[in-house]
Design goal:
about 220 residues; alpha/beta; 2 domains; about 55% helix; about 10% strand
């Protein structure tokens, strides 16, 4: 075993990690990486935000949460906000197919400690886990540059960054063609409540129709 692997083992001794991703292949892949690089770690897995919060409330101590932003029901950004309110000290590592340009700043503002794009590979994910276990935040130079650049734009930043967590989630769902009744059932809300959120985000984004919502999501690469 390499000296790097030894260091990882020492850092991660007796740690518990919660992996939240709707795709079984990804969850299993991350679990295998953790078991290989951070021996003695306990790995819990959840498929969505509701299951993740249930595990967080059941477990006395979770040392790290690794989560995807694209989750069924409540999205990852809402989950970050919810976990931060529940227990701010838990490090949150975003491991996502979403790009940092559109989601990095929002994730950090809601409480993420690290942002790793899935295409970055095993070594970067491993480095991020090690950093968070050591109490440090982790952003590679490219992602840090994207986030800083986005923040420096100030008032010129995309209009959707001014939306609430729930409004942003509904924007993305509507932009992908999810009907109001279907969305209401998915989020356990009434159709009237979803319509109210839709009206608010229409006003904030200065758009008038669902067709404009779709176009806005495409233009800003909101998956």
């Amino acid at each position: 075993m390499s000296s790097m692997a030894h260091r990882h083992d020492k850092i991660a001794s007796q740690k518990t990690i919660l992996v939240v991703d709707s795709h079984e292949v990804v969850r299993e892949g991350v679990r295998q990486i953790i078991s290989q690089r951070f021996q003695d770690c306990k790995v819990l897995m959840a498929t969505d935000s509701a299951q993740a919060m249930q595990l967080l409330r059941q477990e006395l101590e979770i040392d790290l949460v690794i989560l995807e932003l694209l989750l069924p029901g409540k999205g990852g950004l809402e989950l970050i906000h919810e976990i931060s309110n529940f227990k701010k000290s838990i490090p949150l590592l975003v491991h996502t197919a979403n790009n940092a340009t559109n989601y990095g700043v929002q994730a950090v503002r809601r409480g993420a400690w690290a942002f790793v794009e899935k295409q970055s590979g095993v070594e970067e994910l491993t480095a991020a886990i090690s950093a968070l276990f050591s109490g440090r935040k982790f952003f590679n130079s490219q992602i840090a540059q994207k986030i800083v650049s986005n923040v420096r734009q100030g008032e010129e930043r995309p209009r959707h960054e001014k939306l609430s967590n729930r409004e942003f989630l509904i924007l993305r769902k509507l932009g992908h063609g999810v009907a109001i009744k279907e969305l209401a059932a998915e989020l356990s809300l009434s159709a009237k409540t979803i319509s109210t959120y839709r009206t608010r985000l229409f006003r904030k984004l200065d758009i008038q129709s669902l067709a404009e919502v779709v176009r806005y999501c495409i233009e800003h690469d909101l998956k």
